[in-house]
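Subject: mismatched residue count in predicted assembly?

I count 887 residues in my input, but I want to confirm that the predicted structure covers every chain. Input:
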Amino acid sequence: MSYRILIVDDEPNIVISLEYLMKKEGFQIAVATDGEAALQQASSFLPDLILLDIMMPKKSGFEVCQALRANPALAAVKIIMLTAKGRETEVAKGLALGADAYITKPFSTKDLVVQIKSLLG
Amino acid sequence: MKVKFRFIVAACVLGLLMTGPFGLTAALLLADAKDAERAAFAEFLIPRLPLGALITVLGFIAGLILLRSLFQQYVHGLLRMAETLRLMLGANRNFRVAPEGPPEVRELARAANDLAQQRDELLNDVEEQIRTAKATVEEEKNRLAALMSELAMGVIVCNLDGRILLYNSRARLQFKALAQGPTSMSGGALIGLGRSIFSILERGQITHSLENIQQRLRKGSAEPTANFITSTRGGQLLRCQMAPVLRTGADSATTATVDSLPPNPPPGEGGDNIGSQAAPAHDQTTATTMLGAELQVTGYVLTIENITRNFEREAERDQALQALTDGNRAALGNIRAAVETLLDSPEMEADYRERFTRVIADEAAAMSSKLEATMSRFADSLKTRWPLEDVLGIDILAAAARRIEDRLQLPIKHEDQDAELWMRVDSFALIQAITFLASRLQDHYAIRELRLRLSAEGRMVFVDLIWSGTTISSETLYTWELEPMNVGAETSPLTLRDVIDRHGGEIWYQRDKAVHSAFFRIVLPAAVTPEAPATDQAQHLHSDSRPEYYDFDLFAARDAAGSGIDPERRLTDLAYSVFDTETTGLQPSEGDEIIQLGAVRIVNNRLLRQEIFDQLVDPVIPLKPEGIPIHGITEAMVNGQPKLDVVLPVFHEFCAETVLVAHNAAFDMRFFQLKEDSLGVRFTQPVLDTLLLSAVIHPNQESHRLESIAERLGINVIGRHTALGDAYVTGEVFLKMIPLLADMGIVTLQQALDAAQKTYFARVKY
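Triage response: the counts match. Full output below for your records.
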């Protein structure tokens, strides 16, 4: 069976690439464009991995990450934070809040795919 | 009395000596003789007895006269001489004993005079040495003060109580600029000799820094200084460095030994010293011998720099950096993902491919406009970080002119120089550049004179080097721009272009055909004109007396103007605010109002002409035409000035912790009192009135008007009938009065207040 991946980002210009990339790798895809939608999708779509942007309307990626980790039903889901914030302090915060990996934009798509595959084992 | 008694005794002895031997002989002869002989003897003697007695009495009188004259000459003469010697000893050093009387006494007088002469020479010598030493100290103090006032950084020296002993003009300007109050005085007035630093800087921060310094001293740190950044009420940021003032020399050694005895409290002001309290007593012996300095911090030097602007610039730069990095991450991320996907997916359908390309184009366009926006928004803060300073343009040109005339013997003329222009430059490099251009012109085109012009347009300053006759080609300047700036034996690694770039400036060659001249124009960034009021500086430079920014005597004055004012303090030790008002009329209770308030401070017996309060006040009511010729203040002058409700609280702050002094103070105080309730400021400090004090000193003089008193006391009156002018005169009068009062036994504030009150009642009675 193929893994399910939830893409959370409010910018369509990155979503288009991510969506294409993931589909090409044979994953099942769902997209959310704000924090609240992300939480709903996480419960309904039950993804194996979430690509999570930080700067989003309604709820930030940090908040979403925290909420996901607080829900035992979703404890197994992997979270990769994808963000335009590159400061060390923010990386530390993301990892501390429960993200499995933290990737800053711009990133190499190959690296991203490698990272996803290794997390999904 | 004693002398008289001794004279009587001497007379008696004389009498006995004259009658005694005769009587005794007669008695012995009579005892030895037979009866017949006795009878014959008596018969012979008795009739002749009166003659013998007469001769004896005469002899006795002659003896008395001799005795008296001896007493006069030796005993009285010596006593008189003793008195005059005492006079020489005390009251009148120049008095000499007149040699009179018998030769021995005269000899003694001469010897005493010689001794006195020798003593006087010694004393004169000592006095001379003290005078020289004092002059040296004074000169050093003045040199220090001059040095301080030239420093570009604000410097304030305080004693351990936080009383200001010294400040330089930059510090005053800095704090003046900080106080964006409604009057010209607020804030600037707060920095003053003897005032507390805690009205400007936070007490906690100062104490903390002092403790840090003590700690560092205890550890033997080579640099026992502390730094802190503090913000003022107005939100300005100040960077302060604190360095301790240590007691120096032999003095410190003795202090250390005394301090090391545990039962003895540290002497003098060391008693409240933080460090001495911190160190446990048993450790003190070793600690003090090794680091005696610890216990002898007598004050501290604060260097203060307003970094608000730097800080803002820094923050802007940060923002710009942020906007250029993080702001572009997302866009770049989108592009990269799209491009990589495109490259990795040759099989992608055409419409997908089209969408991906669109993403790339859009994001690239967005990045470009973002970059544009950032650049224009932060243009200023992204400029070169080369350390440029704000300088007055004409100063730079004057320095360049001197250098050119000195190195090249090329005459320089100044032409149309705007004296008000400030620019932001590396002055040394700029002067080098100007000199370099002058030398090239001289070498290659043999110009005989160079004119320097300074003008401005918007935020640009133009420095023009003008010469007549010869023209050059534009290419020549391009070549020169790229050569190292060598003048004579002086070499420089920089090129003219480097210097121009460093300033974010430009340079070009231009011809002015109409007047047959050509010039190089250097364009430089203008600086915001610093707050420095030129008048202030000038006043300071031109005043004959030494600047009054310091008073080290306050080092000793522990809590000089401390909590409240002790009426038992001596008049010479107090701080005063001497003030005067101009008013619309003479009837405060009938609605007359204050229109001008002027004051000057007296600290340690000195009138501090730099620490003044000078403010026009809008009286709200119209001015009376008859008053205008007296005070010379017109409607136009008071219009737009702050009203008393703003000015009086600021003035109140200016006068804090000082005794108020005014001429006919009751009049001015009445105006204040009428406002006290509505404005919530109360002047509770003691008030001395020079009018009443004058009546105390010269009760028999008819006039106690300020002019008359000033004339009597030999004070030049200038600039009267402005509030500040009158305050100056009153202050000088008051200073002259203090010693006169002391002559009358009026030494303390309480005594002066009492005496003034007495004359007041005396005058009221009349």
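Residues 389-525 of chain B form a domain with the Heat Shock Protein 90 fold (CATH 3.30.565.10). Marking this ticket as 'not a bug'.
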